[in-house]
Amino acid sequence: HRHFSQLNKIGKRLNSYIIHKDYIQFCFEIDTGVKKEVKKIIGIDTGIKALASTSDGKQLGTNIEEKIERIKRCKQGSKGKHRAISDLKQTICKVAKDIIKDQDLVVVEKLENLNLNSKLKGRLSKNMRSSIGSWNYSFWLQRVEYACEANRVSFRSVPSYYTSQKCPICGHVDSRNRNGITFICQACDHTDNADINAAINIKSRFLLGKYGSQY
To answer: What average pLDDT score do residues 20-43 get?
Structure first.
């Protein structure tokens, strides 16, 4: 297996593995060296219209909703569903690698705050929320963290409260600020893409809060 050979060449295989009916999972210890000097920091918001929206105004994985819908249409346990889930995970892995290119430190929302009730309720229909298990927030963030570790990029997380409701210009917090994919501040009329706006708030929370001293 190409990936196994690559890891076996650069790392040390540990005496730990998992045997599954479809695969065997091996563990490797790899020395990736010291982290990069932090000169460039980026905040990342996770969403359904774009898997990753960044604080510098980019959006990657804009086909994620389409891939989730494809999974929903497949019969449970079918080969088609298995292929659709595999395709989705490949997309997640690719975006995770692309998102950390030329970065020194990335900031995401804390994993425990990313759940169906707090993150997606109000943004998505009940049917769409029920399918999120197929793409799994934890898998996405684990792939981002893995990509960071492999490329000497620092990885940090901050609480997600009000990141989608806060205006980064005037600081006004209001649930009405977000309307679908658009953010319009009710106080100062600042307008932006809602997910990019959240990414900006994620980065600011890291830099301005107690988290900024940790990098």
So the answer is: 90
